[in-house]
């Protein structure tokens, strides 16, 4: 059966239908003006009348290529300081959906408009800048998937009219990084999103996009006539900050307080080169991570990066892929630095970057064949060097070296190359090849002293050994609007470790084949589209033992009323800690939708066979999980949500996680957020109210309280306060 499936998938890969040629790319000719525009959201200045109008937007996703039901007009102008963008979004005023919130935190069904800018013309960095009708800003890296972590300085004004709404932007060139000179190959696109009465979300664009083509720049419009000023060195930005905190530990009857000043400096060497220095930075993130259940987890948990220092240039230092699966730089390994320096730049199509940091507290992730653990290593010095060359059609080739030296002894070095290639409009090839060397300290030999695990004649404990390893990631995929086929291979030798990455396991040989089919319905009474995917995984270790065989079948149904139904099944054989588990079955069903314009729901159920991994001798049991989430928009200024996740592994554990929040925005700059979480597994409450005033992306005042409470048998029995933290953080951009 397995061989037959491989033949079917490979046959489909070779003969599935390719894309037609891309539609001709439109051209936008931008005019330069001599007098700055006064932003008011009205477009009354006469210079706007001379600007080219971009209109005739078309749909994406299920509505790909269809003329947009609502008319949109976009315009561009520029002077020596700013790029000006204007949108006129036609719609009945009573149909406008908008909310007042903090930046980058729009409501799911908010109307919004945005511009995509590729100022290098090679997809190495595509800016996405937008706003909703209330003037709430959104920004980030655009592309095949949007990354909101990048923050920019720009101004926006909006107005509601009797025919829709207007959004007017002024984007300083000093906020952007771009190539200079004449005859630049810049690209642009305009976007708009709105929700109709049937609760369907429509995402429309000016330069049409074909679903499945990962090269976004290849589908953007050409931008002609823009000659921005060459930025001179010396326009330095200073962001001093002050963090003051007070905490009480009621269990130990103790208190503590601290005041920490810090300084962040951004020195633009040119229009493309940037030096950033952080002295005694407060690298604690303002918003806490959501709690997770790790009771049956033998691997380290991954949390996404939220800290602003690592946002600039993140697209360059990213050495990972959804297909290559080798993560050599996970910025949260730089945990508590006393000083951090970053330099990024570009020459032609080649980007380069360096990060150096002295870390006061250094978590080290150690992967093993069936588990991973995090060891605290004290002070360390991290250095990351990255080079990336962009090729045709958003292809690229690059290299990275990471090194970390620990004060308590030992060091780690990892190096790798990555290659991303688009041989056709709907073909994508990815290759990651890496090697590592870990010189262990011998002063920490007691670490893992009771761990008998050995690999390649090495022990798990730190005893001064030199451990080397290598890893390979390869993928080949073919995608179009209705068909996807993929092959992915991962290899991790037993000694492979990363100095600053996130790799949970090694001693692994892993291969995955997948085939997907999308169906779009023109006249179905209920369905808009559906997607179906089958995949197979085969995993062995380096001794040739078969560790896992997995077969998955997943389905997604998109309904005309906006609801989405997902159904997935999985059959699996697994060898874990020398115990064989065969014919394990799992099934999950989830539903997402809107009861009305104000209420969004998400829920699901999963059940099947589970391995209890935390036991010395693992066992199999029946398990199921139920989750539910409701989000309610109280008004344009306030919203709330509550979610619960319940897990039950028969005879071993059961419990739930509760997560709720409430936000109220007094203006787009001043907001109050309260987050309440409870873990039934640890019997702990976490209550976190926070008041934020943020006039721009880099100036802010935060005041927050973190309240920790504990219970005994249930949510409220013997509820006692265990710890309280108060903090104030102020930072200002000069």
Automatic annotation (TrEMBL):
GO molecular function: carbohydrate binding; hydrolase activity, hydrolyzing O-glycosyl compounds
Any matching Pfam family: CBM9_1
GO terms of biological process kind: carbohydrate catabolic process
Boundaries of every Carbohydrate-binding domain copy: 39-196
InterPro entries per UniProt: Carb-bd_dom_fam9, DUF5916
Domain DUF5916: 244-336
Record-given protein name: Uncharacterized protein
């Amino acid at each position: 059966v397995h061989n037959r499936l491989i033949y079917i998938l490979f046959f489909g890969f070779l003969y599935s239908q390719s894309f037609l040629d891309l539609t001709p790319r439109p051209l936008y000719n931008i005019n330069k003006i001599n007098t700055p525009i006064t932003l008011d959201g009205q477009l009354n200045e006469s210079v706007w009348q001379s600007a080219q109008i971009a209109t005739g937007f078309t749909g994406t996703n299920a509505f790909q290529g269809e003329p947009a039901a609502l008319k949109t007009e976009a315009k561009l102008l520029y002077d020596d300081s700013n790029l000006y963008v204007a949108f006129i979004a036609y719609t009945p005023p009573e149909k406008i959906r908008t909310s007042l919130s903090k930046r980058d935190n729009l409501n799911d069904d908010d109307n919004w408009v945005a511009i995509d800018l590729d100022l290098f013309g090679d997809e190495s960095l595509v800016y996405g800048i937008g706003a909703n009708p209330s003037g709430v800003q959104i920004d980030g890296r655009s592309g095949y998937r949007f990354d909101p972590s990048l923050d920019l300085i720009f101004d926006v004004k909006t107005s509601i009219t009797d025919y829709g709404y207007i959004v007017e932007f002024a984007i300083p060139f000093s906020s952007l990084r771009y190539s200079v000179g004449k005859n630049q190959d810049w690209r642009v696109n305009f976007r708009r999103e709105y929700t109709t009465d049937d609760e369907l979300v429509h995402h429309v664009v000016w330069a049409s996009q074909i679903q499945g083509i990962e090269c976004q720049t290849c589908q953007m419009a050409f931008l002609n006539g823009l000659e921005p000023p060459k930025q001179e060195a010396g326009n330095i930005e200073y962001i001093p900050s002050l963090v003051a905190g007070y905490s009480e530990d009621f269990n130990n009857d103790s208190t503590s307080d601290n005041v920490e000043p810090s300084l962040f400096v951004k020195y633009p060497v040119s229009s493309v080169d940037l030096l950033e220095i952080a002295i005694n930075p407060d690298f604690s993130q303002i918003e806490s991570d959501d709690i997770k259940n790790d009771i049956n987890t033998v691997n380290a948990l991954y949390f996404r990066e939220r800290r602003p220092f690592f946002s600039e240039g993140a697209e360059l230092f990213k050495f990972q892929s959804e297909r290559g699966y080798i993560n050599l730089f996970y910025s949260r390994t730089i945990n508590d630095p006393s000083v951090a320096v970053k330099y990024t730049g570009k020459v032609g199509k080649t980007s380069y970057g360096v990060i150096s940091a002295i870390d006061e507290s250094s978590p080290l992730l150690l992967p093993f064949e069936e588990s991973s653990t995090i060891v605290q290593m004290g002070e360390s010095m991290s250095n990351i060097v990255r080079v990336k060359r962009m090729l045709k059609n958003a292809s690229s080739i690059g290299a990275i070296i990471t090194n970390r030296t620990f004060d308590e002894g030992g060091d780690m070095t990892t190096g790798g190359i990555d290659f991303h290639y688009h041989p056709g409009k709907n073909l994508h090839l990815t290759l990651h090849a890496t090697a590592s060397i870990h010189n262990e300290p011998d002063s920490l030999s007691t670490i893992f002293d009771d761990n008998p695990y050995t690999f390649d004649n090495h022990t798990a404990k730190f005893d001064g050994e030199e451990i080397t390893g290598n890893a390979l990631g390869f993928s080949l995929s073919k995608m179009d609007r209705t068909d996807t086929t993929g092959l992915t291979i991962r290899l991790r030798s037993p000694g492979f470790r990363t100095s600053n990455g996130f790799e949970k396991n090694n001693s692994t040989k892993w291969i995955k084949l997948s085939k997907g089919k999308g169906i779009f319905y023109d006249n179905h009474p209920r369905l808009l589209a559906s997607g179906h995917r089958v995949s197979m995984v085969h995993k062995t270790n380096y001794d040739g033992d078969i560790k896992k065989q997995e077969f998955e079948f997943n389905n997604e149904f998109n309904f005309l009323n906006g609801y989405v139904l997902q159904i997935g099944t999985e059959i699996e054989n697994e060898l874990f800690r020398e115990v064989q588990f065969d014919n394990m079955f799992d099934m999950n069903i989830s539903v997402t939708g809107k009861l009305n314009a104000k209420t969004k729901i998400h829920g699901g159920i999963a059940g099947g066979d589970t391995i209890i991994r935390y036991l010395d001798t693992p066992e199999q049991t029946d398990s199921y999980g139920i989750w539910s989430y409701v989000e309610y928009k109280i008004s344009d200024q306030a919203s709330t949500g509550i979610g619960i996740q319940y897990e039950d592994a028969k005879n071993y554990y059961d419990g739930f996680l509760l997560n709720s929040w409430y936000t109220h925005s007094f203006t787009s700059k001043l907001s109050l957020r309260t987050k309440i979480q409870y873990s039934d597994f640890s019997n702990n409450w976490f209550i976190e109210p926070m008041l934020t005033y943020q006039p721009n992306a880099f100036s802010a005042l935060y005041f927050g309280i973190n309240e920790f409470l504990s219970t005994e048998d249930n949510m409220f029995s013997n509820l006692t306060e265990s710890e309280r933290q108060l903090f104030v953080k102020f930072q200002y951009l000069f």
